[in-house]
Amino acid sequence: MTESPAERRKRWINLGELIALAALFVSAVGVWIAWQGNSSDSPTRVVEQRQPIPLTLRGTVERDGRALVIAPVEQSHALESLTMTLPGKAPIEVGSDGRLAASDVESALTNDKDRKGSGKAAIRIATRYVEMGKERRTSATYAVRYHWEGGGLFGGRSLRLDSFSR
After folding, report:
1. Radius of gyration in angstroms for the set of CA atoms belonging to the chain, rounded to a whole number
2. Which secondary structure element, helix H or strand E, spans residue 121, and what is its range?
3. Phi, psi (5° rounding) for residue 24?
4. Is 99 exposed, middle or buried (0-12, 13-18, 19+ CB in 10 A)?
5. Is the whole model's pTM more than 0.85, yes or no?
6. How far apart are CA 36 and CA 21, in angstroms?
7. pLDDT, tens digit, for every residue of 107-141?
8. Buried (b) or exposed (e) across 77-88, using 16+ Cβ within 10 A?
9. Would you give the end-to-end CA distance of the chain in angstroms?
């Protein structure tokens, strides 16, 4: 006895219904497990927490090298104080405005006797700053490049700041 196409189609419809019922059962079990796992009646609150960003400083030369303004790269950081220290020298307090005068660096560079050409000084910077409402502290070593200028017949030589880098 051969099956007619209608009987074959009827069997496939029954198989499709069985697959749909199995999927419905699996979904119902998943919903029940999720409902049982949530014991508190309060809604779940997802809050994105911002991670602190490490402080990075940049320097901008002003007044033809007579001053260097040091500021954080990230806008969310607010400087409270900067203390710069050359190895073996007294610290230079810069303050929250970040303005470093070339004369302050010049007085700290007492070992540069010939005062000619250009040079580079490694400076340790201890910083207090505010980020996300919390006071933070950090310290890092930066390089300040400078050159000596002037010194004609009667004039003295003066220091000019060129750049500030990490």
Report:
1. 35
2. strand 118-131
3. -65, -40
4. middle
5. no
6. 23
7. 777 665 556 777 888 888 888 888 877 888 888 88
8. bebeebebbbee
9. 90
